[in-house]
Specification:
Length: 409
């Protein structure tokens, strides 16, 4: 009996939990994009580091306001000024600019739009509340607080925040090493002429390299391996000696020339082979030494779907991402078109998530869903996830959709 998709995914992630943890290294902030923090990141300073003005306006003491709605201006404070020796007489206000330090005795900053200049001084037009328009010390980030936890992917906003803290180096996990090869006598490298009428271009390996690059892996590209049991076995041995994860494309189906599964049985162990999912039924998962193994189907759409749905969460887990990143966003919407579905396998159809004339979300099919129809991904922005027990779907029925994450955008 075939494993369900959820059973297969659970087995994969369980193996990731017991895998050898990645080593750590220290990198410059400039080289940390997409890396994963290997320890909690602690703020060395307060942000803001001093009380400062959120507006161009006037700093006031509330005790000075009841006596007069007009206060003479005693001076001006600009961003970057040192106010340690500031002389601010009682009964006056200070002109102050955005980002400028606010004196400790100031109770509020009044924006200039709520004032008028008069011959006697500055007229305050509205009631003034304590603390208005003052950014307090540590309001954004407090010194010695955890800014980001271990397992945080360091994105541009993340690194920008760390730059404001003056942090120049970070401890991160080393990149996951992934060895990759395609199998098949019919495969031709991209850029070379097709050898004969039965040959095809090795598009899968090209696609997988792009996906692995997006996931910030260190890639060991072993190229195209012909349908030769000894050469496939040698390639797997080489991959296992160098990588944390081995990915192959093709050779795990039931044909006479599908030797990858046989070689895996000889060198290591197969956890499972075949899943009740469509596309991607012939997916092999196992282990050779310390290296985990994912054998992807040879059809282009099956390769992309199984990588996205099964290999991607495995890579994130092995790269020690926060576990929350492993849970895909999903929700139910109505279908704008009928969907064809055979009972028996969980089906990941390519869909177009859009709004109808009433502004409500709906999903439409991209058309033919065969595992060779690569064009289906060019128009899609989501997966339509149809349950294993479900048959054909009528227009207007509710279905589950998973919008594509950044990997496919």
């Amino acid at each position: 009996m075939l494993l369900t998709f959820e059973q297969a995914k659970q087995k994969i992630l369980q193996e990731a939990l017991t895998a050898k943890p990645l080593a750590r290294e220290k990198v410059s902030l400039h080289d940390a994009l997409k890396r994963i923090s290997a320890e909690p990141i602690i703020s060395p300073i307060n942000v803001p580091g001093f009380n400062n003005s959120a507006m161009d306006g006037y700093a006031v003491r509330l005790s000075d306001i009841p006596t007069s709605k007009v206060l003479p201006q005693a001076g001006t404070v600009l961003a970057g000024d040192d106010i340690s020796d500031l002389n601010w007489p009682n009964g006056t206000c200070l002109r102050i600019m955005t980002g400028a330090p606010v004196p400790a005795e100031a109770d509020a900053v009044v924006m200039q739009e709520e004032t008028e200049k008069t011959p006697a001084g500055i007229l305050f037009l509205n009631d003034i509340k304590m603390g208005n328009n003052i950014r307090r010390v540590g309001e954004d980030v407090k010194k010695d607080s955890v800014v980001f936890p271990q397992g945080k992917q360091l994105t541009i906003p993340t690194l920008s925040t760390l730059a404001t803290l003056g942090i120049s180096e970070l401890v991160v996990f080393k990149k996951l090493r992934v060895a990759l090869f395609s199998t098949g006598n019919e495969l031709t490298p991209i850029g070379q002429p097709i050898a004969n009428s039965g040959a095809i271009y090795d598009s899968n390996r090209f696609t997988l390299i792009l996906l692995l690059t997006q996931l910030n892996c260190e890639i060991i590209d072993l190229g195209i391996i012909p349908d030769d049991p000894m050469k496939i076995k040698q390639a797997l041995e080489t991959a296992a000696s160098q990588a944390d994860l081995i990915i192959t494309s093709g050779g795990v189906s039931v044909g006479d020339a599908d030797y990858t599964k046989t070689a895996l049985e000889e060198l290591g162990e197969i956890n499972f082979w075949k899943i009740a999912m469509k596309p991607g039924k012939p997916f092999a998962f196992g282990k050779i030494g310390h290296a985990l193994f994912c054998g992807l189907p040879g059809n282009p759409v099956s390769t992309l779907v199984t990588f996205y749905q099964l290999v991607q969460p495995l890579i994130l887990a092995l790269s020690t991402h926060n576990q929350a990143t492993l849970i895909p966003l999903s929700f139910k919407v109505k279908t704008a078109t009928p969907l064809k579905k055979s009972i028996g396998r969980l089906d990941f159809q390519r869909g177009i998530l859009q709004t109808d004339i009433n502004g409500e979300l709906e999903v439409a099919t991209t058309g033919k869903q065969g595992s060779h129809i690569t064009q289906s991904f060019n128009y899609a922005n989501c997966f339509i996830v149809l349950e294993q027990h479900r048959g054909d779907i009528k227009k207007g029925e509710l279905v589950t959709v998973e919008p594509f994450n950044a990997l496919l955008k």
